Predict the structure of SET domain-containing protein.
Amino acid sequence: MSQFEEETAAFLAWLVKSGAEISNKIELRDLRQSQAGRGVVAIQDIQEDELLFRVPRSSILSVDNSVLPKRLPSVFKDLDPWFSLILVMMYEWEQDGKSKWHPYFQVLPFEFNTLMFWEQDELEQLQASAVRNKIGKEQADYTFKDTILPIVMEHAEVFYPSYGKDAHDITSAFVMESIRLAHRMGSTIMAYAFDIEPVDSNSKAVDEEGYMSEVEDEALPKGMVPLADMLNADADKNNARLFYEEDSLSMKALKHIKAGEEIFNDYGPLPRSDLLRRYGYITNNYAKYDVVEIPFDTVHETVLKNSAPASGIETRLEYLDEQGIVDTGYDIITSDPFDIHENISSDLIILIEALLLPQSAFDRLKSKSKLPKPSNLSLKGAQLLHTMVKARIAQYATSLEADTSESTTIPLTGSYSSRERRYAMAKLVRIGEKVILRDAEKALADLIEELGAGNDGLKRPPNSPQGSPGKKTKFA
Ligand SMILES: C[S@@+](CC[C@H](N)C(=O)[O-])C[C@H]1O[C@@H](n2cnc3c(N)ncnc32)[C@H](O)[C@@H]1O
């Protein structure tokens, strides 16, 4: 038996000993040959609603189940769920064989393929993707130094029992190791933890949509649910879900699963950029959730360069900010066919239309605390949006045509975190974003032609068909 298989077997034996029930119709399998780590596979046909496994709440690696908060009650009084679980995991990891969760840690990752761990040249393959600004490595470093490190240093003898009496002899190696460990546990939580609902609900799903925890759901306590977190995900291939019960959490089949099929959880409708950031992998099945962001700076610059009045823009932005319209960026989502009003952020359309209004019209809206209607995209608005989209396209180092001149596939051989794999995944992410921009550019160009040829009083391009009288576009 390989070490990998031994660790899997020891983990499952530990889980069963802890009171878990595991169906004999499933197997925790080595899927490294398809670059998917471990995964759960059906070895016999499984019916809809059938129990796959049940994990007792006491086996969850969580703040409630660890002794650390009992040892350091004052530390946990005001700490948010995210930092609390990081601390607990650091503590339990350092207890080594003495931790109740030791066999579980052996099947959790030591290395990650998420964007936080990519080299600079690998990140550059994402070109102008907005995900590069969301990796948050510096922010995480800062908060770990600010929040986690002082606690670990003050209670070094608790966290690092092997330091013994010299626990307070803190060295820079100690500091670096603690930050590294905090990153590792933070990344594990991001890709593996669930939001744990309290023990009151009547057999409730993980959250309303059944996704694994989102970092954004900061209020709910987080927990690591052994085996439940061994399920991979592949967009709509989802066929199982975790349900809360009073003393346990149960993974059940959502549909009939045939022998040999993989059992998939649902990580949510994530664009490939975000999937890469949080989970370190992508599949083409997630392409339908792709998003491209128009950063606020691009919006601002385009408005300043291309439209009067430049004066008063900042005051208008202040009002729009109060109304919740100003954001760091605006999403354009993918769909085929592309629909301007469905796919382009309505806040972006509101922002543009508000900035284009004559001063008197803007003042009137403001006095009534109102905003332009996103359904009323004007010709000027469409033109400005079109210029913005073109400016955004120009921010990427290569064109869509160049990127797609040869097909890109993610290598299935070699190391999971190889440069080759990362380059290919990054290329697919940027292609997805450029496809949306191309579609948006084309839809806006068509709309401009339509509005220009219609009743906006502008000159129609030569040879364009005459719009029939009274014909209204959806956007006029
Ligand atoms: C919740 S864990 C699932 C168990 C994981 N495969 C393991 O071996 O520990 C999430 C991680 O599994 C991997 N993963 C999940 N779904 C995948 C898929 N469809 N293809 C490749 N890797 C996947 C990614 O590395 C992701 O960060």
The longest strand covers residues 51-56. The chain has two domains: 1-269, 291-453.
